[in-house]
Write a structure and sequence with these properties.
alpha/beta; 423 residues; Aspartate Aminotransferase, domain 1; 42% helix; globular; Aspartate Aminotransferase, domain 2; binds pyridoxal-5'-phosphate; 6-stranded mixed sheet; single chain; 13 helices
């Protein structure tokens, strides 16, 4: 098979493909695996019950089910969904949005593909622009999305030690600012996930303000990936102010509410950006998928979504995170130099084994032999030029699956890590 440049780049064995293969194998294969990789949200019975009830109503209402599966919606989204989400967000945040400020994508993953490639890449006269990721490690799913090579530039985070086994990443303000001031012609936008996948970090309001001011001053968009943030799914264990203005492109998703298979991503942005996404959507996917939008639009209309997140989703993951941290304390050798990133949100714990004698890719292979799936750290540093040993000393684990599996997985990780340090 002869492939174009695009074909070659997009069929490579990427980190995200490895992760999705592990996920498919763990959930669809015959072997019992301890699935601490992937980012699948949990099955929360109370939340699933609400979605089931909604589906029952859709089935009972004459014509509603037929409409849901039988129509192509517009390439911007399903109008009642756009309208109810606009009203909901305006009531909560007073952003003064109209439905022309919102577009639906086929999962936010597709939204990022559009945003990154429409702003960055190759321009006329050999000019190139990049997406700046101010805080590495950053989401694995961005890494291979560029149609052109080297779409990202990123910066090592500063490490703040919080106690014997806990740390937090922070943005290196002066380094990022200096780079932007010097290279503003070569940057298209700044992008950050908040809460961050893989680390569970939530950059502070102060850090968001810094990025917002820096992007405004230099005429860049600031893309905030809010897949886990407030108001939904609100998998946040710390206070974080959500801001939006015409300079900010806010990405949200229905996935972590428990609807990943409906592939519903939401972009909130300036009208000009939304028009562009709508046009690209028409080419890539024709229309947005209706199922997630039809299931949820009444929940935005009456703001019930907030109660669902506060009452079920947030406490569920908060408890899971606390439990996973307890397992780590129980099964990891206290004398080893291991660290866990402060868990402030999302579905993950990020573990750092300082001065680890093997790479975490090797640890991943050893764990896989023992039926434990994790994600090695090296994939989470897109655009980082510096040869940072830290990349190979970290792993991401998810605590969203059942607690027995998480406990067993963490126990086995503890054993393998101890073995590696010993040998
Ligand atoms: N952004 C972040 C930070 C994520 O963790 C994910 C998925 O795990 C996505 C975006 C993409 O999610 P989806 O395409 O399901 O909306």
């Amino acid at each position: 098979m002869q492939l174009s440049k695009f074909g070659t780049k997009f069929t490579a064995r990427t980190g995200i493909l490895e992760l999705m293969d592990d996920l498919a194998h763990a959930f669809g294969g015959k072997e019992r695996m301890y699935m601490l990789g992937g980012g699948n949200p949990a099955f929360i019975p109370e939340v699933q019950h609400i979605f089931k009830e909604r589906m029952r109503k859709i089935l009972e209402k004459p014509g509603e089910f037929e409409r849901m599966i039988g129509n192509y919606d517009g390439s911007q989204g399903y109008i009642p969904f756009l309208e109810s989400l606009t009203k909901f967000l305006n009531a909560k945040y007073k952003w003064g949005l109209s439905s022309e400020n919102i577009a639906i994508t086929s999962g936010s993953q597709e939204g990022f593909f559009i945003l990154f490639n429409m702003f960055a890449g190759e321009f006329n006269k050999g000019k190139k622009k990049k997406i700046l990721l101010p805080l590495a490690p950053e989401y694995i799913g961005y890494a291979d999305q560029g149609i052109s090579e080297n779409l990202f530039v990123s910066f090592r985070s500063k490490i703040k030690y919080l106690d014997k086994h806990t740390f937090k990443y922070e943005i290196n303000f002066s380094k990022v600012e200096k780079y932007v001031e010097k290279n503003k012609e070569k940057i298209a936008a700044i992008c950050v996930s908040r809460p961050t996948n893989p680390t569970g970090n939530v950059i502070s309001d102060n850090e968001v303000e810094f990025l917002s001011n820096l992007s405004k001053k230099n005429n860049l968009y600031l893309i905030i990936d809010n897949a886990y943030g407030e108001p939904f799914p609100n998998i946040l264990f710390t206070k974080a102010k959500l801001i939006w203005n015409k300079n900010i492109i806010l990405s949200m998703s229905l996935s972590k509410l428990g609807l990943p298979s409906t592939r519903t991503g939401i972009i909130i942005a300036d009208r000009e950006v939304i028009q562009a996404i709508k046009s690209i959507n028409a080419i890539l996917i024709l229309a947005s998928g209706s199922i997630g939008q039809i299931i949820t639009y009444p929940l935005f209309k009456n703001a019930r979504i907030l109660r669902i997140c506060d009452k079920y989703i947030n406490p569920f993951y908060r408890k899971k995170s606390e439990l996973a941290l307890l397992y780590i304390k129980k099964y990891f050798d206290d004398s080893l130099p291991y660290y866990v990133h402060k868990s402030e949100g999302a579905l993950f714990l990020w573990l750092w084994f300082k001065d680890f004698p093997i790479t975490t890719k090797e640890l991943y292979e050893r764990l896989k032999k023992r039926k434990v799936i994790v994600v090695p750290g090296q994939y989470f540093f897109p655009g980082l030029k510096a040869n940072w040993k830290h990349k190979h000393e970290c792993i991401r684990i998810t605590y969203s699956q059942n607690s027995e599996d998480v406990e067993m997985g963490i126990k086995i990780i503890g054993e393998e890590v101890r073995k590696a340090y010993k040998n």
